[in-house]
Amino acid sequence: MEAILLHNLETILNRITKAAIKCNRNPDEIRLLLATKTVPADRIRMALKAGQTLIGENKVQEIKDKYAGLKDIPHENHFIGHLQTNKIKDILKYSISCIQSLDRLDLALKLNERLLRENKTMEVLIQVNTSGEASKFGIAPDDAIPFIKEVAQLSALRIKGLMTIGLFSAETEKVCPCFRLLKQIQEEARALELPGVEMNELSMGMSGDLETAIEEGATIVRVGTAIFGQRIYPDSYYWNERS
Ligand SMILES: *Cc1c(COP(=O)(O)O)cnc(C)c1O
């Protein structure tokens, strides 16, 4: 299993480098976030040992479950899932360094309040629903700027940029407008020069569309299946594997 994982990781790193070079960007400007939902701690460790430094989880329960298995190995953990307000207290126990999925005011207010009470701060990205799909979380593009202005006033939250999940489509010409829209909102927000707000991060692009995202300015790409899930060998290979 380890050989496959390391092979997949190498493939993704090569894809990132190639995509960056193709659009005259420095590959070092783009961070790989390992989307580790459903992946057990021992497999995450393999990737961290291979030099990876950033993981992202979707559920507070999974962070909790894997915490002991990962805490001795240096890494950064971002939250990329839908955060329920009743989980705020919990999530603050597990050294999450950034919540990438801040998408509504009640969450922002409650998170800020709790952080203030604990004398902490939290980096956040604003999640924007650029695809317009009702099934996707994220603030509507038209509401993004007013929302950023409100969050900017909450002293325990440090806005670092934006996050989006593009349209799930193999067709570049359909995904591309989602990423472009995020970039456009970033530029609009930057122009406001809000005190304390940094707009440097664009977290966009996953296994299937990371090249497009990098071309459109991604600074963080979030990859799961192409590293942990995709089967590069036929099933017979797994049937012979002892686990
Ligand atoms: C699962 C997930 C990813 C990674 O998607 P893959 O297609 O598995 O690479 C990225 N972002 C978020 C928010 C996710 O939940």
UniProtKB/TrEMBL annotation:
Q: Which domain of life is it from?
A: Bacteria
Q: Which residues form the signal peptide?
A: none
Q: Which PANTHER family match?
A: PROLINE SYNTHETASE CO-TRANSCRIBED BACTERIAL HOMOLOG PROTEIN (PTHR10146), PYRIDOXAL PHOSPHATE HOMEOSTASIS PROTEIN (PTHR10146:SF14)
User: Where in this chain does the record put each Alanine racemase N-terminal domain?
Assistant: 43-230
Q: Which residues carry this modification: N6-(pyridoxal phosphate)lysine?
A: K37
The text of the family note is:
Belongs to the pyridoxal phosphate-binding protein YggS/PROSC family.
Record's CDD domains? Answer: PLPDE_III_YBL036c_like
Name-wise, this protein is: Pyridoxal phosphate homeostasis protein
Keyword field:
Pyridoxal phosphate
Which function does this protein serve? Pyridoxal 5'-phosphate (PLP)-binding protein, which is involved in PLP homeostasis.
A Pfam match: Ala_racemase_N
